[in-house]
Amino acid sequence: MIGSNRKTSSGGRPRRRARPAWLAPVARWSAVVVVLTGVGGAVGWAIETGQVGAIWSTTVDGANRIAADAGLAVDDVLVTGRQETDPLVLLDVVGVERGTSILSLDLDAIRERVNALPWVKTARVERHLPDTLFIALTERRPMALWQRHGKLALVDEDGVVISDRKLGRFGALPIIIGEGAPERARDTIAMLASEPDLLTRVRALTWIGDRRWTVRLDDLQGGGIDVQLPENGAAAAWTQLGTMERDHGVLKRDVMIVDLRIPNQLIVRVTPAAAERATAPGKNT
Asked: Where in the chain does DSSP place strands (E)?
């Protein structure tokens, strides 16, 4: 009976003393020593007899059973850093059953399988003796939606495709268009952030001719404005546009295209309706 102070059984024979708590870890480590010693001896004998394959397999299986019986068995899988990765998919990929000898786990193989999951950027896999498999995830950070062949795919900061399903909650991200756009978009989006007011209006970025960007802005009237950035000096051109918008409101005049490809120049093309109004009789042109 737990908690009882009785020292003898009903037959008068002394009860066995409870095993001290400190013996448990000692027993586990003793089992590890026994396992390693046994494996080492078996390897030596197998080499001498030429039966390496069969002896090694049998020895390792036996060693794993000893380790598991001694408490060195997986009882928990602890994961940190998981936000988007499906936990059931993750456990299935890890492929470790409760009760498996923790010493038998191939950590490199587990890490390789986990790293193959779409949301996982890097994974660290460790044994935490006596019974825990520890997995630390670094997940990918969504950067943009890549439009290709009429379909959208979510990409991260390195241009790696994460998923092309259930993208509704990522609708606020900018759309990038063109072959090679995902690999180049991170630095460009960071550059666009230098003008916060303009950044809030960015809807899409198109990689043109493998050399420059055209940025699609919301015109705040249900349409769009295409800003043609130069191949070189894009940051300076973008700053110039931000300054012109703050000082003169150039994007509030029925603008359709802003051409910044020529250094220190800003060429504006207005919508056909605005052009017609400007040339109508009685208007100053």
From this structure: 76-80, 120-128, 132-139, 142-148, 151-156, 161-163, 175-177, 202-208, 212-218, 224-228, 255-259, 267-270
pLDDT tens for the chain, 285 residues: list them. Answer: 334 343 334 444 444 455 454 445 544 544 554 444 544 444 444 455 555 555 445 555 555 566 555 668 999 999 999 999 999 999 999 999 999 999 999 999 999 999 999 999 999 999 999 999 999 999 999 999 999 999 999 999 999 999 999 999 999 999 999 999 999 999 999 999 999 999 999 999 999 999 999 999 998 777 899 999 999 999 999 999 999 999 999 998 789 999 999 998 999 998 877 767 766 665 554
SS3 78: strand
> Domain spanning 142-279 has what CATH number?
3.40.50.11690
- What H or E segment, with its residue span, contains residue 64? helix 52-69
Domain ranges (residues) in the chain: 23-69, 76-139, 142-279
- Other residues' Cβ atoms within 10 Å of the Cβ of residue 91: 13
Domain 76-139 fold? Ubiquitin-like (UB roll) (3.10.20)
